[in-house]
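Fold this sequence, please.
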Amino acid sequence: MPGRGADRRPRDDATDIGCRARSEKRRAHPGSTRSVEPRAAVRDRSAGRSMEGRQFGRSVLCLPGIALLTATKLADALTTGVGLQFVPVAYEANPVASAVIARVGVDTGLIVSSFGFVVGITAITELAAVAVSFRRRDGHLAPLVRLAGYGLPSAVFAVVSVYNTTVIVAGLRTVELV
């Protein structure tokens, strides 16, 4: 059984052939758990793995979140539009949307303000998710940021749509009774 250093080649002092570099000598021990790859290769390989983990939170846009946000905002805009046109006591409570509606009309105002809200919320949410991914190495908090960024406004828009529907139904009932 060969002992330690038995794998060495004879040394030629004139040309240093057969001589290992000090780092190779350290890695050549049989019980060593260290890699024999150069440090740069190990660093590049580990960087590749950490980048794969970092891609978790910032790979692409969260399309289901954007779809949910768009659907709930569309429901809000439709119920608001119906309420503004058919119920005399209905009004837009959002001052930004109200200003846009006063300037360009109900239909165009609702389309423009809804588009602006969806784009703004999407941009803020995605930027926050990317920022969390850069801050945290593995990016595991980015889905939570996206859940809050798309979920909370979507819940608000859904509640507003239901409220708008109740106002429309109540308004139409009073018109029939009067």
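The chain has a mean pLDDT of 77. DSSP finds six helices and no strands in the chain.
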